[in-house]
Amino acid sequence: MSPSTQLLDILGIPGSTSSSSANDRAEVVRRGLSIESFKRVANYYQLSDAQMSKVVGTSVRTIVRLQKEDKPLNATWSDRLYRLARVAAQAQDVFESADTATSWLKRPNRGLNGHAPVDLLDTDAGTEQVVELLDRIEYGVYS
């Protein structure tokens, strides 16, 4: 499965729809990802709603309210959720296993100054660090 397909699968967006192109995915994120996508990413990472809310930048109460009202996440939260799913898909591609990827994402890493990769995904700069480390691992330059 390609990283792009894995990303769509993690978010629960059917890959066979027009949302599979990069431009369409950007529009889906702008309109807001569903609470179902939030739950799917939380399930993938095996994180609680509280942990996920922290990374996405909102509160559990807001997530519960959006779920009750059947409303999507706003564009900012959707973008952060998309970022988490994108990194998860890349990790799954690098490690060739969802379980290994999830374990790696949650474990403190020397290459990230002792931080767990998932803890850095709340900012773009932190995400960049994680992606660079995954690239180094993929190409055998991990130190």
Structural class based on helices, strands and sheet pairing: mainly alpha
User: Which H/E pattern describes the elements?
Assistant: HHHHHHHHH
Rg, please? 15 Å
Report the mean per-residue pLDDT as an integer: 88
The largest sheet is:
none
Measure the end-to-end span: 28 Å
The strand count comes to 0
Spatial shape: globular
What is the number of helices? Answer: 9
Low-confidence stretches: 16-20
Q: Approximately how much helix is present in the residues?
A: 55-70%
Strand content: under 5%
Give a short synopsis of this structure.
With 143 residues, the chain is mainly α. Helices cover 68% and strands 0% of the residues.
Outline the fold blueprint.
Layout: H1 3-11, H2 22-31, H3 35-45, H4 49-56, H5 60-69, H6 75-95, H7 98-106, H8 117-120, H9 124-138
Helix pairs in contact: 1-6, 3-6, 6-7, 6-9
Structural notes for this entry:
With 143 residues, the protein is mainly alpha-helical. 68% of the residues lie in helices and 0% in strands. It is built from 9 helices and no strands. Residues 16-20 have low confidence and may be disordered.
